[in-house]
User: Fold this.
Amino acid sequence: MEIGKEYLYNTAITGKTKVHSLDSNYKINIKTSVIYKGKDPDEDYHIFEITETDYVLEMYEDPLIVQITEMTNKVCSIYSTLEVGINKKGEIAKIYNGDMIREKWKGVKEWLTNAHPIEAYEIIRAKEYELTDEEMEIKSIRYIHFIYQFFYIFGKEPMQEGSKSYLKREDMDRFGAGIVIPINLSVSERQTEQGFDEWNAEGKMIRDEKMIRRLREFAKDNFMHPEYQVKGKYLYDNRILLKSDFTITEKLGEFFYYHCYMDTHLEL
Assistant:
């Protein structure tokens, strides 16, 4: 990417969740500005300024979730602009605009206290604690839809045509239990007829007994076999992302299901 140039992306997200007997479908549209600022002179990080310029929750069928969604979106607004250092694995390693984020939080905290004084108490307490620990904060924001998808295979070097490489990643379960899920990821590359580089990534859960036991405890089902998989296709022009399709699916037995499809493309 060219240093200092702004790249504008549109992301359309469609998904479905099931918690016990309640099914919910949702649609979200996001516009994001990405500016590459070059390498950190002191660390082996690539610096990006990422600004969410528009966020529209088009549909969410579960009326009980509307208030929670409103509060969550308000909290996330403190990260509408992020200046972050990304390591070779595509992970956020450093936040450069922490002071700006904490200044925004003051206004959001006041809004939450006035708009939802009882419901927001635990949200405020948890966020206050998180903002005192950068590592914890990084773990939280790395799952913002666009950031999660955009950097998923960041840093992968071009491979021989038709070959595959394998690596491990860690994802977080999608039901708020805070359980880390290890992923075995395979990545392959090919060149299209138009001369673009197409990368395909596919990941599945590593069967870790401790992790499975914790998921079973969360789902209150001692016999269920959890499933978690990701699948992505990326199109690059000289390492500039033109388009990506990304899918996440998680299933915890009969009562917990999550499916999310993200379609991102560069405005040309």
User: Anything to note?
Assistant: The two ends are 14 Å apart (CA to CA).
